[in-house]
Amino acid sequence: MIEEAIIKPIEDYMAGNGELHRFPIVQSARDCCRTGLQKELHNLMLPYYNMYIDDSARLDWTSRGIIAEVAHLDPYFGSWASSQDLMKMARAWAVRGSGDELLTLMDCMIQGGYEPWGSVECYEEVTEELRYQRVNGNSSSGEIYSLLHAFMTIVLSSHRYDKHKDMFQLLRSHWDFLRHVYSVITGSIIGLGFPNFVGLANNLKNTKYQPYLHLVYWFLSDRADELCTKKQQKGMMKALASLQDIMDRTDPNPELDELCQLLFPKDVKEMLINHPKTPYRQLESENKVLENENKVLKVENTELKAEKNALNEKLNALARQQEE
Question: Which residue of 83, 112, 180, 246 is most buried, as measured by CB atoms within 10 A?
């Protein structure tokens, strides 16, 4: 059943024979999982998973998409991926550099229960790779290594598995913005088509990025001299002034604060020291103020209840006296 319904159509398509129809293949994979054939499905799909993780030239956008959907259904995919060399995977994907498709693969991994066995070494390797992006990297490879860095940082964190999934979904949903942050942090424009950081700064004026500007503005401002040539400085100062004006009239959205603190702990710590009035700090202060206000309200509420009870006792005493 699996060979006929899933494997043969994939093989025929890769051999150039006919089209690949998504629905019947995915439905067959779903049926396998529902009827207890998950292990058989997994074993027969392993050659294609290997091609997928190695970004094989035998696969195109259509076949990768269908393999990804089957992997999402395969309960063994996450544990299998846990044993793979992700640095080798990143080097393979860096050749073609499709960040969006790598995010889909990583989603399959994390939804399937990826366990970071021996991943500390991989994390150290990819962190070192990012340090050299400014000199040796390019936009496409930089995006792949940044994504692997983010993925490894999340799965190696002390948070529970459900929190890992939630943080990865934030990463995936906001990767378009977070590429800007990674670019500034690494000093190399990654996954974006701008020739320089003035173009990146101007792009941050986009309405959809404005609530998150507090996550990148100070990094960009503090490093403007090293990110720009002398000729670009005037354009950068003009862009930064516009971003500051936008920040002054835009309420910051804290949705990505925790994720950025996890991904860039040293940079965020340095920013908080150099810019104590940054919205990061303001948000922390506002939370403390709200907590204190709640405590005061509780105390005042307790005092009001006591005063009400005392008044009721006086009224009852007066009523008793009148009756006597």
Answer: 180
The average pLDDT across 207-223 equals 93
Q: Running DSSP on this structure, what letter comes out for residue 132?
A: T
Give the SS3 label for residue 218: helix
Backbone angles phi and psi of 228, in degrees to 5: -125, 150
Q: Is the dihedral of CA 117, 85, 268, 103 positive or negative?
A: negative
E strands along 109-161, which residues?
none
Residues recorded for the chain: 324
Distance CA 248, CA 14 (A): 54
> How far is residue 193 from each of residues 11, 179, 196, measured CA to CA in Å?
36, 11, 9
Q: Please identify which residue in the block is written with the tokens 């720009």.
A: 228
Please report where in the chains the tokens 């996890």 appear, as a residue: 262
CA geometry: angle 153, 155, 161, nearest 5 deg: 145
pLDDT band at 286 (very low <50, low <70, confident <90, very high): very low
Q: At what angle do helices 86-96 and 139-156 cross, to 10 degrees?
A: 150
Q: Whole-model pTM?
A: 0.81
Which of 99, 103, 47, 49 has the alpha carbon at shortest distance from 73?
A: 49
**C-beta neighbour count of 306 within 10 angstroms:** 10
Mean pLDDT of the chain: 85
